[in-house]
Structures are given as structure tokens and as C-alpha cells.
Structures
1.
Amino acid sequence: MLRWLIAACLLLAPACSQPPAAAYVDSRNCAGCHPAIAKTYRQTAMAQAFYPAVPATMGANGITGRFEHQASGRTYSIVERAGRYFQTRSENGRYSLEREIHYVMGSGRHARTFIHRTPQGRLAELPLGWYAENGGFLAMSPGYDRADPLDFRRKISFDCMFCHNAYPALPPGADAPSQEPPFPADLPDGIDCQRCHGPGSLHVASGGKGGIVNPARLSSERAMEVCMQCHLETTSRALPNSLIRFGRGAFSYRPGEPLADFVLHFDHIGRPEKFEIVSSVYRLRQSRCFLESKGKLLCTTCHNPHDVPRGEAARSAYAKACLNCHPSLAGSMHAKGADCAGCHMPRRRTEDVVHAVMTDHKIVRRPPPGDLLAPRKEASRPDYRGEVALYYPASARGQETYLAVAQVVQKSNLRGGIPRLEALKSREPAVLFALAQAYEAEGDFTSAEARYRESASEAAFWKLGELLQRQGRSAEALAMLEKAGAGPGVMFARGVAFRALGRAAEAIAAMERAIALDGDFAAAYNSLGGMLIEKGDRARAEHSLREALRHQPELAEAHSNLGQLLASDGDYTKAEFHLRASIRWKPENFPAWLALGEVQSARGEWAAARKSYLEALSVRPASEAALLGLGTSQAGMGDIPGARVSLGKAAAGMDAAIRREAQELLATLPNR
């Protein structure tokens, strides 16, 4: 799942691998010469790993229904209308949002994930998933079972598509790995023949006489790697699990080439017993059977990728595979027809996808103790902090560079990784970018700025622009952002910089462009709303802020801005609702506490206002506005001595308007 995290952060330089002589073709060509294999393969999970959401695939499985999510208080549903499928969300009748389900990811043997295609060609994972256990049910997708789920905003990256589909048809260089890539409209349906056999144009042109990879004729190492391209994942948690090599495209791996020429895999130190949903190869490689086979035990020793048996046929086939290596066990101790895998490769509930049960591919003498199928609750684990180790291969070309990057790319080992990166003295833009990110995470902004400038990639200019903006260097920030491309995140950052420079029209235009590029960009709707308030366009501002909350109901800043806008219109009831919502999601939100105090003061609720102003002061102890409000509420309660102290501090402040108002209020207090 987290295959190319470094690439996702870096937006690496365009893919520079040389195009192969053979090209990918329509995989339906394969069926003409191999009809029997094509027929059985179409029934496998690999062939059904990605497909359109249509009645033939959705309706046949009864995938509609309603789910009440307790953690967030939201209701999610999957509904069908005239042969089209939609996922909806509401929260106590508010923030209703609906997205069409365009694709399904996952065969349904264990789970299905529903995918929406945005008008800009990006794919977004929807929050409600389907799980096969107990006949099938709807529940939150992994990572969504929390009070503030990502809802409709988690973008599908190239690494997700890599392991769930045939390669999409992209223009040359367009598969430089990125976090939120656009995908072509004509996506393939599932893993095709060429993912294991390589591009098929030469094979087709030769009439089937050559030009194709037969994994059975590869060395055991290369043959195993054909499976490992997707089935090796050391962890789905932040580490990183793997790093694609600099300059390689996301879809540039070709069966038969060394996997390490494409990607390197990494692991935790001291956590081999983790059991996750994509851990089959990771667990198999820990098995005594695998280790003592000296490379002879492959995935295909037990699995026929063209025809995967089910039920009793599967039990029998896998037992036969075991007895091929252990013929002596066919006697009295292991009666004929024994279920070898059921005992020695038991099914277990995975740690990262708690509604999925998988076969544990670590072959053991005896099953682990305890109930391996016991229900789990999704729990957020603390981020890993420690050394990141190279896992596969045991050694590799340039491994010190990639090991150093792996220490910092997900902040696992910043203190150890930064000196290792510096010692490389590398001029590779991706390495410099990773170093800059590490320095920024450590709070060393001077070093971060220097390394961003040296990296000189679009991603570096983007992040440098944001860093400079946070330091109040808006003009410099804008100059960097103008070199950073025109993605939604860049346009958002440019809007922030324009606003800080007082260039209101350009700020609004940039924020509108960010929304046009990503219609789910809640933070952009919120910022646009704030800009429109400043412009005096209150109707459009309210609409934009409500759109922000429709896309992200837990966005505290949008609640605060909308609450303040409603309060200024005298709609105190609705204003208080949004201000309290802002505080619920972000208790340290100073503007919300201050505005809530003003709403309560306007109602004459002096004790409540006093409490709100004190909360505001706990966040910003020297706030003159909060001191003025506190003094006003104290006076309203009859606490004249307290009011004198608070108003006196406000009257001694730097803000002329607040100073004048505090002095006027002090003059009205009775002399007692």
C-alpha cells in the first residue's frame, strides 16, 4: 500500500528508464491462442482485482445498504439508481455528500473498496467498504474507523493501481510516481497476462513464437520476484515499506528483470511477527520450509496463477503440494486427505484490515496459541521511531543512499538519517528533497531552505514556498511557487501568498483554481470563504464555507469562520453551533473561543462569556481582544475589581482601537 512513499513526497524527475522494445497490447489478444488458460484465469482474484461498478458486478453481489458509523456519528449508504451506484454520507442531517462509485478495487474474496473518479481524472477511495466475512457486510475502509475519517478525500496513488490492475496507458514520462495522479478514462479491468509475462506486442507479432517472458523458465530468484512485485509488503504502516528507484516510472517494472533494479524493500527492526493483509511473501520467507529449500520453494510450487482452486479442490491441491516435498508424512500420522494448510498455515485476522481473514503463509509446525480469528477493533498505532533496515534484497546497488533516505522519508529515524544523508554528498534531487524534508521536520528551517533550493525540483519549490510563507516571507514564497507547477496544492499555496501580499483578486483566482483542480479541497473552500468575507461578498463567502464543511465536516477553521460570519449577521444560535463545533475539533482554536465569548456577551450571558474569554487567554495569554472581552464580561457579572484589572491590561496594549474601547469602559465603571 505504501510502495512509493518517497516518490509520493518528491514528485520525482520524469521517468528516465529506457522504453522496452516490446509494447503492451490489449490482453484480449491472449485468449485467441490460449482460450483454456484465459477462461480459468478470468475466475481468479488477480483477474478480478479491479473492475467497473455496474449491475453485473455490484448488483449480483447485493452491494447496497446503510451503515451507522459510531466513531464519527455519520451515516453512510450505498444506493443504486438506474444502474448506477452512489455512496452517500450525512451527519445528523447535515453535511450531506454523495459520490458516484465508478470502480471496485478488490475481487471480493476478502474485501472490496469502492472508487470514485473525479472530473479531473483522479481516483478517490470512498469511506465505506465491503467485507466477505459472514456472508458479506459493509463497514469502514481501513484507516477510516475514527472520529474524523478522510471521507471522500483519500486519493488513489500509482502504487495502489500497480498491485490491483494492469498497467494503464499513460503518455511517456507520465508515470513519474506522485501522490494524486490523474488516470486515463480507459482503465484496464484487473491484472492481465502481461503483468507476469511482460509486454506482448512482439509475441503477438511473431505469431506466438517468442518475445514473451515465461516465468517457469526464469531462475528461481527472478521467477519469485514476478510474484513479489505485488505480494511482498513488509508493512502497510509508515516506515517506508519500499522505495522505488530514482528515475524509474511507477509502471516500469518488467517481469524477468531484477526486482531490485526497480524497487528496494525495507523493514522494522525487531518486528518479524506482524501479520498484515499483504504479508504472504513476507511470512513465507520466514518459514523453515522456504529457508531450507535454498530457493526451490516458490509461490508457484503451491499456486497455479492461471487456475486457483476453491473449497475442497483447494484443500486437496495444497495438501498434494505439501506431500510432494514431504512424502513420508502421508502415513499414519497424517491420514490421507489431511488438510495440511489448515493446521500449518492457519487462517488469521490481519492486524491492519481488521475485517479481513487471510491465510498465514508462515509454515509452522504447530499453529500459534489463542483465537486467531477473534474480532479486532481498528486501533491507531504509534508511528515507528527507530532504525529502518534493508529487507530485500540483502544487498543492492546504491543501497546506502536508499537506506539513508528510508530513515527520514516517513520520519522513522530523523536523527540517524540526516547525518547519513549529508555524508552522501549527493546531488540527486530526490535525496536533497528528502534531506530538506527531514530538516524541516526537525525544525531546522535554515538547512531545510538550503536543501530545497539545491534540489530545484517542482516539489522542492512547492515545499520551499510553503516554508517561506510560514516565515512571513510572502514575496519570496510566491517566487518559488511560480516554479512549482500548477497542481491544486500549489495553487492553494499561491493563494495564501497572494493574500498575505494584499493581492486579493489574484488570491481569490488562485484559490478558485485550486478548487477547480480538486473539487474536494476543503481547505481551499475555507480559505476562499475567508477572502470573500474580506472582500465583502458575504453570500458567496457563506456558500464557500458551507462547501468546506460539506467536504470535511471536522474542519475546525471553517466552522470558526462560518460561526463568526453568522454572528456578525446576528444569527447567534447558528453561530454558536459552528463555534462550538470548531472548538470540539480543535480545542486550542483561539478565534473560535473569542467569537463564542462575543456571542455570549451579545446575549448578556456574562458567566458563559467569561469562561470563553478565559479559554481564549489560555491559548493566547497576551491577547488584548480577549482581555477586553474578559473585562466586559466581568463588569457584566458585577466583578468590578476583576474588570478593572482586565480592562487595565487591555488599555495598556498596542492596538489603538482596543485601547480606546477599554479606556472608555474603565471610565464607566463605578468607583467601588
2.
Amino acid sequence: MILYALSFFAANAQSEIAMPKIPLNRQLFHDNIDNSQKAILHLNSKTDTIFTATDDFDINLQLTQFLRVRIDNMEALIEKDSSIDESAKFKWLRGINDMLTDFINDYKLKKIKGILLGDLITAYEAAMIKEMHHQPITPVIEENEMEIGKILVLNFSLKDNSGINDSKDLLVLKACERNPDNILTILSQHPAVPFADSLLIIMAYRKPEEFYNYASAPDALGKKIKAVNDPLVRTISQMAAMPTGRFFFPFLDEIYKKNLNIDSLQTLAGNETAYYQLLVKTEINYAARAQKGDTAFVMHVLTEKLRSKAIEIYIDEINALHDEKSDAVRFKKIDSLSAQDLYYLCVLGEEEIYTSSYLGVYKRIWQRMTVERGDTLLRLVNNDFYKKFIRMAAAYNVLGDFLQRMDQNGAERLMKNFVNDLEKNSTLEDAVDVADSYASISDTALRKLLLTQIKNNQQQNKKSGNLRGQKIYALLNTIFTSMDSSKSDALAALGIPPMYYMPLSLLKDSSGKVIIQQFFYGDKDGVNIFNSFLRTYTNANWKITRKPEWAEVRSVKGTPIIIYANKPLDTEKELDAEAQKDLGFYLDSLNANPTVILHRGHSYYVKSTIQQLPSSAKLVLLGSCGGYHSLNQVLTICPAAQIIASKQVGTGVVNITLIEAITETLRQGKDLNWPLMWQNLQTRFVGDTKEKFDDYVPPHKNLGAIFIIAYNNSIKE
């Protein structure tokens, strides 16, 4: 009778089998199944008469037919089969209902798609046949989706199947195949699966950093890893077992290839300079390999360790001595470093290094070289981060000096390479570097060279069909051409707000006032520049009101303007930060949204100002050293803000002159015309002050910022 019933399943899949009389003691089981069938029909709507698993009516109809006919037929055949004893009938009926209720629960939790219902029912039938024949259900699990397999291996009627353990292992393997990035997480929950060793070896080579974390864990998987016989796994396990494993981990590739050994590295534990220099040497070696398509294990880990050590050991100390008058004292920490060592202080310390620190390090690079040639320096570091070095040199106004340290052909070739392959980078960093650098170049011939190469690259990307490349180079071409022609029409076509001027109307609030917030910091210089600021506005056009934590400067004639400036209270006690916070709360209580933000203070305070930037800001002046390097951070908060910043040394005289020119122009009811304002300001500075003013970049020449805005606009479109 069993053989008849089993063959009948397949032959009469869609034909309804008459249900025999159901004994009273099993009626409840059939009722439960009926209720589960109805619950599935109503999963998406209580008024549904078919299971709406998809947007296709025909598919939904077929799934509903499966649910009704196939399930009813299974019930009928179980009842009709005289070879199935009473206990087995209970088991199979309960199994059917469990299968349906598990589907309902998983569907509600979005763990299974509705379209798999038919496959689930068919798979349960197949597993049922296997179990009745005393055969393992593993082939059924193999043939079906993981979601179906999970329901089957947990089913009451199949829990004692001879293949249940193999089936569960198979589901772990399916989970690993579907989620290759989460293999180690999956294995940590199932460390005893027979294929664990093979997958662990794969993951050691694919994700050594994550593998290290699991190898160091004192759990079952950690023990399993230690027992795997593979050279890379053994190397990582050895490091993970050591308290100082992270100290050695950046050199994993060199240790694995036996170019270094852990015992020799132990001697560097107390020598921070030697450790830093080994990081530099290894980074340079890895850069050469990467150019040949050979990426070292955890290369990014080594680079990040090099970055952190550059800042922690050297840059932080040089920065901290910024007030030290003697360069010999300030830069003593780097006396023992080579030109290559100093190079990485520049390119990896970009976000932390002060302007004066950078210029001091840059000067010492050449002092360490026998032949002071730019191309020689880049060869020494295998051109690692050379685009970053060029951008920073441009930003700090030493690009001309750098290019003059090589022959003309070499300089031209280098700059062409600088603007090549921008489309191959997954981020916009290289493209922004190019835009920033172009704005800093005054050499007409070099500008022409870069613009020609950008146009060539645009055409090459057009021929190859690279849309991202076309977009990047087209935007750069438009922006650079616009800058050279001093016309904003092209920028307007890119959806960029006017950069050549700031309309007064954009700065006014709904009541017609311009709200300006100025950030001061409570060191010695901060007190002086705050007092200088107040003296500038002590005239008939302005009224000053002093509050405990800030001052309010209001125009009494012309356009209503209010400047809120926190007092430079003691920074050691963080009273200046408290004043800024309280002023922010006060402005919020007034529903006053500043559209102009003025940062006054050293570059190490810029982060604090940026963290407090209101999204309402339309114009931001970063009046500190190197404020130019914070453009992207500002634009993340204020996507369309115009930014004025210095590439090198910010100075109080220039800042207050700029601020006075901006506020006076607005008070007179005029728009801010940047080219005209810069032309007029040029005549107000002489000598050293004029040189410092020349380092300030007006909004219409902030090409990196303009590029970011233009690219983001193009993505939205």
C-alpha cells in the first residue's frame, strides 16, 4: 500500500483525492491543517481567496492550487494507507501542519518568499517518501533553497531521519555559499561541521584581519583554527595567541613569506623610531608589489598603522610645539628620519598636520636628500600616494617648488599622470585632489597642459563607454574652463549655485535679517582677536551688546545684521566650548538660523567649529591655518555653502579685513561679488600680509568644493 501511495503522490499531484472518513481522534489534526491553509491564504489580506505571493495572478493561482490540492491529497493518502500505523498517521499529519505553520511564521518574519510555497510542499512530499523508505533526506535538502531546507530539518516528522545531521551540515554550507562575507560568523555558530577546515583556510587568505579576530577568541572556533594545518593559518594563530599580536600583524605578509620573523620584530617593541621606519620600508615595498598586481596581505592594515604612528609619534609633538620659536627644538623629534620617512608624515598626516608643521617637514625632506630632485623622491617611495603629495604641495603653495626640482619633461609627465585614471578610483578623492590642485596652480602653461589632458581623458572614456569617467572629466573640464573665463554660466548649467557672488537675499531670514555666528577660542591669541573684532565695530553703524558668554553686534543703519560672537573664555577650563554651546541653545530658542559662519582661531580648533556648523550656513569663513583642507567636511553638513579658507597661514589682520568687507557690503544692501571684492582687497594689503592674503581662496576658486557639489547634483539627476 505504501508503494501505491507514494507513486500516487506524483501521478495525481493536481487531481483531488476523496477524503475517507476521518476517525474522531485525528479530526483535530485535520482541522489544524485546514486552519493553516486558510491562514496562508490570508497572509496578505483577510479578504483574499488566493495566496497573493507575487504580482502575477497566474502564479498566485498555481500556488493556491498547490496549497489546497496537494495538502488535501497528502492528508487523504495518509488516512487511506492501511500500512501506516496509528502512531505514524499522527506523526505525518502533525508534520504537514508544522511545515505549514513554520512557513507562516517565516513568511511573516520575511525569512522566506511566498513563491517558494509550492517548492516547500513538493520538497516535504519528497522528504516524506525518503523517510518512509528509510532513506536520508539529504538529497532533498541539496536540491532545494536553504529556506526550505531549514523548515524540513526542524520538522517533527523528519527529526529522526538517518540523514538529519548531514542535512543540517549541508544547510550550514549553503549559508556559507550564500553569504561568503559572513562565513566566519556562521562557522563560529557551527564549528564542528566537517568542512570547517577547508573554509577556514579560504577565509584566512581572503580576510586575514577578520580571521585574526576569530583566531584570538577563546571559544570552540578559536580552538578549531589553532588545529588547522596551513602555513598562513598557523602564522595568524601564533600572532593571535600573543598579547602583542597586533604589533606584528601589519607585517603578516612579510612574516608569512619568511622575510621577517616575530623574534626579530620583538626587539622593536621599545624603539618607536625603528618600528616607524620598518613600517615605511614595508609600505614602500608593498606599493611596488601593488603596481604589479600583487597586493600584500593586510596592506591596508599596515598603511593605517603607519598613519597612526606618524601622527602619534611625530605630528602630534610637532603640532604641540607650534608656539616654539626655535625650529631646532620644534622639529628635533624628526632629526633621525629619512626623506622617505618624512614623505609619509606629509601624505598620511594630512588631516592632523598644521600648516607650519607641514612646511617644516617639507623643507627637511630635501635637506635629507643627496640630490634634491622631485622625481628621485617619488622613485624612493615607488610613487606611493604621489597624487596626495602633489595635491598637498599645491594646497600649501609649494607645488611650483616641487616641480622645479625635476626637468620639464618629467614634470609634465608627472602632472599628466596626476589627472589620469580618475574614473578607476571608487571614491572621488583623486578627482577632488585634481580640482583643488588646479586652483592652486598659477603657471599658465601647466594649466593648459592639465586641461588638454582632461579633455583627452574625457574622449577616451567616451570611446570606452565609461559613464562615470565621462562625468568626472566633463565636470572638471567645465569647472576649469569656467574658472579661466571667469564666467558662471557654465556652473549654473551644472546646477551649482552662483559661486562668483553671494546674493544678499540668500543670506536673509524670513524677517529680512542676516544672522552671523562667529566662533572664538580662549587662548591668548583668541582674546586679542576678539578685542580687535569689537574695536572694528565700534562706530556709528553698529551697536555692541555684551552678554556674560557672548557679544551681539547689530547694524543700526542699512540691512539688519546681527553678529553673535562667543567670548574667548578660558580654553583650559573649556569655558569657551561652554559659551559656544550656550550661544547655540540661545539661537535655537530664538529660531535664529545663522547663514554666515566665521571661524576665528588656530587650525586645531577647526574641528570643533565644524562639529557645530548649522546646516543653514550659506557662507563659511575658516580663518585659520590650513582651513582649506576642511572643505569636504563643511560640504557634508552644508552641501551648497560657499567657503573662504586659507591654504597656509591664517592671520588675524586678513580675517578681520575680510569680515569687515563682507559685513559692510551686506549692510549697504549689496550682493557679495567675490572677484570684485578680491580685486579691491588686494590693494589693502602689502608685504607679508599681502602674501598671506594671497593664500586665501575665495568661493569661486574653491574648485574642489565646486566639483563635489556638481558631482552630487549630477548623481541626483
